[in-house]
Specification:
This protein is α/β, with parallel strands linked by helices. It contains seven helices and 19 strands. The strands form six sheets. A six-stranded mixed beta sheet has the order 1-2-18-13-14-15, with helices on one face. A four-stranded parallel beta sheet has the order 9-8-7-10, sandwiched between helices. Helix 1 crosses helix 2, helix 2 runs parallel beside helix 3 and helix 5 packs across helix 6. 43% of the residues are buried.
Length: 282
């Protein structure tokens, strides 16, 4: 698969639905907004993280991250590290290897497994690993970083604003899948910056993202975004196949949200994992 690195990923219209095709951002053969955020975090030259001093950063000698077993984060980190010619260490819970874990190892990532527990335990182990590798770069769980937030915020400028008879017509709603909640937080910041009053519907497919949204999203974000929790209907590890037109969605994320998308909505496609069928020619 050829890398495709647009400044702004396009918005397409299929069957009366706007699709924000962030899955068309491709680097190292893996696609989506999380890939853009990870690349930025791995290669940035200035530190602008919360609670950290601003200053120059040396090139990373390796990447360290924490990830759930079914999350694409570890394979994203491993593939980008491979492109950069540096190693990657991925902390994950114990358990049978998923396709994502196998893909991570196939691209040179080192798997470090811990007794299954809460995500904050795995995150703590990854941060502890960083103590012994000061020249490495930490890629936060769920891309929880202001710089990653800005990467998504910048994509909001591509939302179509249609003028008719002097009136502004916007997409009816924005529908976005809530994993960590960081992509939704970035979208909300972009809407605020461009003064676009579009309601947002976040579809919760895993753990409650409210705490993260309270920290990273704009103040009073709940006034613009409602959350629909579908965890009683679909388990996080459960795969669902769905597509719109010829666009195939991630089976653990967007596929579970498609039934909530209505005519006139903008469906924000965050990405699709490398172990899933491709939407673009190789």
């Amino acid at each position: 698969m050829k890398d495709n690195i647009p400044t702004l990923t396009p918005i397409e219209t299929i069957d009366g639905v706007y699709l924000k095709r962030d899955d068309l951002y491709c680097r190292s053969g893996i696609r989506g907004g999380k890939v853009r955020a990870c690349w930025h975090l791995a290669t940035r030259t200035h530190d602008n993280g919360p609670g950290l001093l601003t200053g120059l950063l040396p090139p990373a000698e390796g990447l360290i991250t924490a990830s759930a077993r079914k999350s694409p984060q570890a394979q994203i980190v491993a593939r980008l590290a491979h492109t950069l010619g540096i190693p990657a260490r991925c902390h994950m819970p114990r358990g049978e290897k998923t396709e994502e874990m196998k893909d991570m190892e196939a691209h040179g990532g080192e798997l470090i497994q811990h007794k299954a527990g809460y995500n904050n335990v795995i995150i703590a182990r990854a941060r502890e690993d960083m103590r012994y590798r000061s020249a490495w770069r930490y890629i936060p769980f769920g891309m929880e970083h202001l710089a990653a937030l800005a990467c998504t915020r910048n994509q909001v400028q591509s939302i179509p604003v249609e003028m008719a008879f002097g009136n502004i017509h916007l997409p009816k709603r924005i529908i976005i899948c809530l994993g960590s909640g960081m992509s939704a937080a970035g979208v909300l910041h972009g809407l605020a910056y461009h003064q676009l009053n579009i309601p947002v519907i976040g579809i919760q497919i895993g753990a409650d993202p409210t705490k993260r949204l309270n920290h990273f999203a704009p103040r009073n974000w709940w006034q613009q975004m409602d959350i629909i929790n579908i965890t009683d209907k679909y388990k996080y590890h459960e795969a669902v196949e769905a597509k719109l037109g010829n666009v195939l969605f991630d089976p653990h994320y967007e596929s579970k949200c498609l039934e909530y998308v209505e005519h006139g909505d903008l469906f924000w496609v965050v990405g699709i994992r490398a172990t899933q069928a491709t939407n673009i020619e190789t």
